[in-house]
Amino acid sequence: MDNYKTWQIGFPICINVIMSIGAYILTTRLIPSLNNMFIKASLYGNDMNKRSTKKVPEALGVVSGCVFLITMFMFIPIPFSDYIFKNTDFPHNEFVDLLAALLSICCMVLLGFADDVLDLRWRHKLLLPTVATLPLLMVYYVNFNSTLIIIPKPLRLWLGFSKDLGIFYYLYMGMLAVFCTNAINILAGINGLEVGQSLIISISILIFNGIELTGDLWKAHKFSMYFLIPYTSTSMALLKYNWYPSQVFVGDTFCYLSGMTFAVVGIIGHFSKTTLLFFIPQILNFVYSVPQLFHLIPCPRHRLPKYNKEHDHLSPSVIIFNKSDISVLDIFVLARFIMQLLRFFCLVNWKEDNNNLITCNNLTLINFVLIMFGPMKECNLTKILMLFQIMWSVIAFVIRYPLASLFYDV
Ligand code: UD1
Ligand code: MG
User: How far apart are the first and last CA of the chain?
Assistant: First the structure.
């Protein structure tokens, strides 16, 4: 790496790290001092997996999110300082990328907070991230408009070397944002899980960016690091208070903010497929949840594990319904197929009694772990799920590096 490139990477990243340390300290101080304000504003919930019924302030993700955004706003001039001082050609494209990415994340924090305050319906939860990605997609259109994908080697005989997906590529990017935001939100409900999984994803992407800094696309990876370093530091501060036993809940604000940040860096940095590789546990949880999300079988408001007060441990929660409640509509064919597969491979606890009453566990990865390993304490459950996330990150790196050469010319 030549000296100028080292300087172009090293200088903004060093400033970014210093600012992120400041952001961490600020967030750790702000959260406890704002707790009461949230409770007064009726923004609180009950920890359903505890004996006490103490009010726990909700949506504190808005604090870490705002500190993250303020840090990013103050950071805006840093990557461009060379051009400002030397009066050379200003890279307008890079500047617009940065602003659009911030605008999308900012929108998502606002919409996430609205969701926490107003408790929106599921159809809105799908609509909000779509709206928030529009500025980003517009900038993508103006700056890159590259909708070409390289076909994996084994399929090239039939599909050729590359394919232009056109509008479908934009649809894919919009759906990526919807998926990332909601996938984190539905793998939730035990202390520390929302932030824990998001931190593992962000650190994994940061490692990936660090490796790729030596490659040709170093600018895109440097751009991603600008966002992920302060995101990681502010989320670490939040985890300090959200870890078992939680003093605060992070709310949908945090889930949306996280999902959008990952989608934004993946889209602008052109590594959305790799981003998805770090989401494998969330994809598994989503696929497992499909029969409930598509209402083939009933989906209660909360699918948290069942809390046993006496032993202070969690066991799988169940839903009980009548056989006639199973939806018969054909649009649920995918959900039905997944449900049959799950039952065939004994991945659900499904019991039918003589009165046609069916008992089935709530279809979440959290409950699945409890079925596999038996009842356990909440903090152990979070740790197992985080280990699972780390394990998949390691597998993602294996897929991305050694295995990718089987499919692409890397
Ligand atoms: C999603 C899940 C829901 C799960 C909920 C938990 C789906 C379709 N939705 O709904 O099943 O129950 O997240 O966040 O899968 N809570 C705890 N302990 C925690 C975290 C949350 O008890 O560690 C409870 C608190 O009462 C808190 C509430 O969950 O107030 C927050 O739920 P919310 O984020 O509003 O639920 P959804 O995101 O709609
Ligand atoms: Mg939620």
Answer: 20
Q: What are phi and psi of 88, to 5 degrees?
A: -90, 180
**Domain assignment present for 407:** no
- 3-state SS, residue 78: helix
Note the pLDDT of residue 109. 95
In a domain? residue 281: no
Q: Give the model's pLDDT for residue 334.
A: 84
C-alpha 186 to ligand 2 mean position (Å): 7
Residues 212 and 331 in one domain: no
Q: Is 150 in a helix, a strand, or coil?
A: strand
Which residue from 198, 215, 187, 359 is spatially nearest to 285, judged by alpha carbons? Answer: 187
Considering every ligand atom, which ligand is closest to the CA of 122? 1
The domain of 346 spans 291-384
Residues 260 and 336 reside in one and the same domain: no
Mean pLDDT by 10 residues, the chain (410 residues): 85 97 98 96 95 94 98 96 84 93 95 91 85 91 85 85 90 93 96 98 98 94 98 98 97 96 95 94 96 91 95 96 77 83 93 91 98 96 98 95 79
- Residue for token pair 């955004």: 69
In angstroms, rounded to a whole number, what is the distance separating the alpha carbons of residues 76 and 14?
A: 14
Identify the three-state secondary structure at position 188.
coil
Token look-up 């009950």 returns 46
Instruction: Give the pLDDT confidence score for residue 150 in this predicted structure.
Output: 84
Q: What residues does ligand 1 touch, defined as CB less than 6 Å away?
A: 45-49, 58, 185-186, 188-191, 246, 249, 252, 302-304
Q: Which of 217, 243, 272 is the last residue of a domain?
A: 272
What's the token pair of residue 384? 């197992």
- Domain count for the chain: 2
The ligand 1 atom nearest the CA atom of 48: 22
**316 Cα: distance to centroid of ligand 1 (angstroms):** 15
Give, as residue ranges, everything with CB less than 5 Å from ion ligand 2. 185, 252
Does some domain include residue 410?
no
260 CA from centroid of ligand 1 (Å): 19
Q: Mark which of 272, 299, 332 sits at the end of a domain.
A: 272
Residue at 403 is within a domain: no
Closest-approaching ligand to the CA atom of 45: 1
